[in-house]
Amino acid sequence: MSEMTVRRHVAPPLPHVDLSTKLAGVTFPNPVFTASGCAAAGQELDQFFDVTDLGGVVTKSIMLAPRSGRPTPRMAETPSGMLNSIGLQGPGIDAFLEKDLSWLADRGARAVVSIAGGSVDDYTKLAQKLRGRPGLTMVEVNISCPNVEDRGQVFACDPVAAAAVVQAVRRNTAPGIPVFAKLSPDVTDIVAIARACVDAGADGLSVINTLLGMTIDTTTMRPALAGITGGLSGPAIRPVAVRCVWQVHQALPDVPVLGMGGIRTGLDALEFVLAGASAVSVGTTVFGDPTAPMRVLYELAHALAERGIDRLSDAVGLAHRPPVAYVPEEPDPVGDELPVVRTPVGFEEERA
User: Fold this and answer.
1) Catalytic pick from 145, 157, 197, 244?
2) What are phi and psi for residue 334, nearest 5 degrees?
3) Which of 87, 91, 206, 331 is deepest in the core (most CB within 10 A)?
4) Is 232 helix (H, G, I), strand (E, B) or coil?
């Protein structure tokens, strides 16, 4: 390590809020996870804060064989977000098990392993290699990969293909280890894909993956990414992600959702919880603030406390409750002044 020593973040005390959450029968101490692809397997972030303090560490998607990924440039900034075209670079499952998963297990972190493949057989073999491994708490199935057996059709865009992958992973994953399917927003009906995954055996759903986008360098007059298109992430996609979580929870209220997409603050995380997420993943913002997952956790806890919510579970899906009709107070019969009604911030009337 260089002469410069990285100082670990010392977490302030949490308010008295029960932050525990249950995902498909497994209880996590809090609802904040990392997001796949943004923190490798957690070792880089562990120098900034103790990763065992998080609800879980979601690893970068791992494939069967080592993969070098796409050519550079592979990342580009966009307004309120970024595009990435990494191409699932990674060491392959065997090296991952030996180095990364074993480190997470030794560290005592709750590992959520993201897996990706180009065929159903790839996912089957990955699930088999993970079965029974110490430290494995949950499997996240990244189905937003092209299906090499079907002329590049992305699994997550087809209910039949998505179901085939999920069924194979669930069948080859040990009982008691939840299997979550990670859904793509690049579909006409995300609920149809969600239902297909759940019917095939998914214990829960990760909502959402990145949106497909591109940007053009107006100096070179060529696409900014060598891979032409890339996955859009960051605050720009948060309204899309919240909408997807809302729709999935509304249609499948008993299915746990791990929400993600542009979460930067505790209030962002609260939006996802109110929409129906039982937990959230913090991703792109760690590139600018490596302590972001812990900061989001503490901001979320304070946001719940400020709203008089003692348990995180009481807030899950709360925005789906019927609206309460507003009945103005009757004026005081003695006086002639009307009661003062405070307008919520952001809804002030424009005055001429």
Assistant:
1) 145
2) -80, -45
3) 206
4) strand
Q: Under CATH, which number does the domain 21-320 receive?
A: 3.20.20.70
Looking at this protein, which amino acid is placed at residue 137? T
Q: Categorise residue 104: left if φ over 0, alpha if ψ from -120 to 50, beta otherwise.
A: alpha
**Tokens coding 45:** 């972030």
Distances (CA, A) of 144 to 208, 226, 322: 10, 20, 34
Residue 10, C-beta contacts closer than 8 angstroms, at least 6 positions apart: none
Q: How far apart are CA 49 and CA 44, in angstroms?
A: 10
CA 317 – CA 251 distance, rounded (Å): 12
Residue 145 known to be catalytic: yes
DSSP 47-114: TTS-GGGSSBEEPPPB-SS-B--PPSP-EEEETTEEEE-----B--HHHIIIIIIHHHHHHT--EEEE
Q: Per-residue pLDDT for the chain (352 aa), expressed as one digit of tens each?
A: 444 455 666 667 778 899 999 999 999 999 999 999 998 999 999 999 999 999 999 999 999 999 998 899 999 999 999 999 998 899 999 999 999 999 999 999 999 999 999 999 999 999 999 999 999 999 999 998 776 676 567 999 999 999 999 999 999 999 999 999 999 999 999 999 999 999 999 999 999 999 999 999 999 999 999 999 999 999 999 999 999 999 999 999 999 999 999 999 999 999 999 999 999 999 999 999 999 999 999 999 999 999 999 999 999 999 999 988 777 777 666 555 544 444 344 434 333 3
- Considering only CA atoms, which of 247, 246, 279 is closest in space to residue 263? 279
Among all chains, which residue has been given the structure tokens 């390590």? 1
Q: In this structure, is the dihedral angle defined by the CA atoms of residues 83, 242, 186 and 260, taken in order, positive or negative?
A: positive
